[in-house]
Every structure is written in structure tokens, then in C-alpha cells.
Amino acid sequence: YIRADQSLNSTITSTGCTEQAEQHVSYVEHVVVKVLIVHPRRGDLEISLISPSGTRSQLLAKRLFDNSNEGFRNWEFMTVHCWGERTEGQWILEIIDSPSSLRNPEVLGKLKEWTLVLYGTSGHPYQSHGTQHSRSRMLEIPTPSWDPDGPEPPPVVLKHQEEEEEEYSGPCH
């Protein structure tokens, strides 16, 4: 549960798909986080993503005038703050609930699930590619629905898709 005046951290461990050479994403270009959050007042929430190397990206700031009780149903947030960093390691989603005077802080929110999508390359982004075209890849890491107060969640299932930058026609899932 997302408790008032507390931080909820959820972690996904990425291997960068090292076991599949064709799908390997070693270096980040950009990251997409998709969340399903139920909450009585979504304007009270702040969401950050912390990369394996410690870069903190604010995905969502607290919003005084957002009184919606709809939560975030499959909302996507994107960051480029991790550009050039390694994909392998623990990615942490941090959610902070700072209740306003407009709601009862006893009513809790809940992170039902989140997905991490890593876009990047297998080669270091600072290397010169000469006249070759660069290839971009996507690594999607969904988290299964689980109760943070319950037993450990089941293992993460990885889904991979390769794409070419020049022929990009939108996200593939």
C-alpha cells in the first residue's frame, strides 16, 4: 500500500537481456515507466525512478490542483536522464504520498503494477558508428500484480522486441 507521508519503493532487476544477443540492451537511450495506481487523490503523489547507477529521475511532481480520485490507470511516464547508463541492475520506482488537507490520510493508495521499458543499444553510445546506421532496441520488464505486505512477488518475466530507428512506427508491445 501507499501510506500517507511515507515512501513506497518497488524494485525491478534488469539483466539487459544479456542472454539473447539479438535483443541485448546494454546502454539506455530513454526509459518508459507504465503504472497502475489506485489512489484517493492523485495530486498528492510524487513518482521517481532511480537507475542502477543512482540517477534519480522525477517522473511526476505533486500537483496542488489535481483532485482526481481516478489514480493512474496504465499511465506512461518517460525519462532521458539515464541516457548512456548501463541497463543491468536494480531499477527502483519510488512513490511518495504527501496528503493535502483535502483528503483523509487514512485512505490508502495502492501500486497494483508497473512496467519498465528500456530503450537503448548494445554498443556504447559514445562510440563512433561511422556510416553505419545505429540500431535501437527495447527491453520491456513488467511486474506482476502483488501485495507488498504479502509474500515475495513471483519472478519477473521479460518481453523483448527489436526495432530499427529509421523505420520506427510507434511503440511495440
- Biggest sheet: strands, sense, closure? 5 strands, antiparallel
CATH topology category name: Jelly Rolls
SSE order in H/E notation? EEEEEEEEE
How confident is the prediction overall: mean pLDDT?
81
Count of β-strands: 9
CATH homologous superfamily title: Galactose-binding domain-like
Please indicate the percent range of residues in DSSP E strands (runs of 2 or more). 35-45%
Roughly how much helix do the residues carry, as a percent range? under 10%
Which consecutive residue ranges, at least 5 long each, have pLDDT under 50? 152-173
Explain what this protein looks like in three dimensions:
The chain has 173 residues and is an all-beta fold. It has one domain: Jelly Rolls. Helix content is 0%, strand content 43%. It has a 5-stranded antiparallel sheet with strand order 5-2-7-8-9, with no helix packed on it. Strands 1-6-3-4 form a 4-stranded antiparallel sheet, with no helix packed on it. Strand 3 and strand 4 form a beta hairpin. It is elongated and about 50 Å long. The protein starts with 6 loop residues before the first strand and ends in a 9-residue tail after the last strand. 27% of the residues are buried. The C terminus is likely disordered.
